[in-house]
Amino acid sequence: MLVIDQDKLMTVSENSGEIRHTADFEHFIQEQDLAVWLCRKADPQSKGKVENAVKFVKTSFFSARTFDSVQDIHEPLSTWLTRRANGKIHQATGRIPARVLELEERKTLRTIRSSIYDQHVGIPRDTRKANSKGMIAFAGNSFSVPQKYAERTVAVQSGPVRLRIYDMDSGSELCSHPLPEGKGHNIVSEGHRVKRGSKPREVYDKLADRVELPGWKAFLDANLERYQRYWKDQSVHLARIAETASELDILDSAISFCESAECYGAGDLKSAYEHLCESRDTGFPSLLEQARPMISIRTKASSEVAKRGIRYYISALSLVLGVPA
């Protein structure tokens, strides 16, 4: 049982027993498997003399002592608590608090569970690589990550009731999922996937507004025309490109190259963008630019198959069979 006052860091509201805790505190309660007793607002009778304990320490300990740093407080305060605060007979109960704790209370207490909120423990995080659909495997179940992290490695940290997923570079939390009972579950958060029920035009409109480049919409038009059957899959990859491609000038060059090569797949655009980024970082000339003239010749070349007359095939057949044509 955890008894708390109505602090906004822990409790959002309390209306006739209908209590709403903050999201982080609710996760902490579930993680530690705690029952909460929330004191009534502006009702000191429900709190006993708990708040007076602070006043007692301030007037009896700190008022007669000075310290140079916080570290200097710990040892003398611990000694004072053992000797004075917890070692003398309590006026209301007629008992010594330290003795009551050891004889009666301690056997009802349990150790605090390891917590992902404990910054001092430094619980190690495992790593998982998300698949192309933005799912990671953990403890026999699958959990979703934001779509931009598909096919990328993320850090995971498991508590008793929740799995938390973090960015590998920044360490920031991406999302969290409740841990289900058993195995074989797919846990997907809303917004982590492109809605499969969306019509192609709706998806197109959303994608078109995500990149402010003159060639972006033309590329989408060509992609939609060529890959209409696979548009839903293509749109997922295009959305990821739109979200992760931070260098718009390089993305514009990649779009221009794909148009000149008549390569309108999302994978083509991704490869071109990554190659141009790498060429800029290394200082080497771009192989794509060197290949542009050859691609131009290839795309303009005729792809018509030569046609032969029927007499050609009759002559060839007569030679094989050994009969006159």
TrEMBL record:
Entries under Pfam families matching the protein: Mu-transpos_C_2
PROSITE patterns cross-referenced by the UniProt entry: INTEGRASE (PS50994)
The Integrase catalytic domain, residue ranges: 1-105
Gene Ontology BP terms: DNA integration
Domain of life per record: Bacteria
PANTHER family attached to this UniProt entry: TRANSPOSASE, TRANSPOSASE RV3428C-RELATED
Protein name: Integrase catalytic domain-containing protein
Species in which this protein is naturally found: Alkalispirochaeta sphaeroplastigenens
Source organism phylogeny: Bacteria, Pseudomonadati, Spirochaetota, Spirochaetia, Spirochaetales
